[in-house]
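Saturday, quiet lab. Running sequence design on the structure tokens for the scaffold JK sent over.
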């Protein structure tokens, strides 16, 4: 028995590449239009705006002391 010859492979056509790039760009543009999250969650209450966020605790002071130049 003889093996059947493989059909010739066609190189990737320029038109296929442009279609793929166009679809990728459209998908990226559509993804930017999706809502990122609930806007109410992003807003801080007045109590959250006033509270202290940074505390110089003992381990922070030790870190600064060990890493002085």
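Result came back. Writing it out in full:
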């Amino acid at each position: 028995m003889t093996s059947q010859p493989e059909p010739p492979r066609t190189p990737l056509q320029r038109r296929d590449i442009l279609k793929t790039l166009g679809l990728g760009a459209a998908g990226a543009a559509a993804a930017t239009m999706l809502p990122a999250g609930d806007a109410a969650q992003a807003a801080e209450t007045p109590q959250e705006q006033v509270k202290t966020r940074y505390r110089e605790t003992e381990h922070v002071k030790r870190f600064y002391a060990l890493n002085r130049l």
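Notes for JK: The chain has a mean pLDDT of 81. The CA atoms of residues 23 and 29 lie 10 Å apart. Ask whether to fix the surface positions before the next round.
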